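Annex B. Sample input.
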Amino acid sequence: MAFAVFAFLSRRWGVVLTLAAAAVGVARVWAGVHYPADIAAGAAIGLLAVGAVAAYRRSRISAIELIRARWAQPSSARR
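Annex B, continued. Sample output.
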């Protein structure tokens, strides 16, 4: 889950934080605080949230690039 979030910034941090999140999940099951399904459901919800945010960011970035490209054209080419 953390990999998906931090892979935008740095692949290395994404891997490190994904391993840390997995270790915390295993530790919580081991300690008897959560069932494995709790951890899996939390990871699934987190991945869905990250996917939604990533899709939104991609759509906003492509819209901004489209606007910039449009305004970069000479005024005679816009018509």
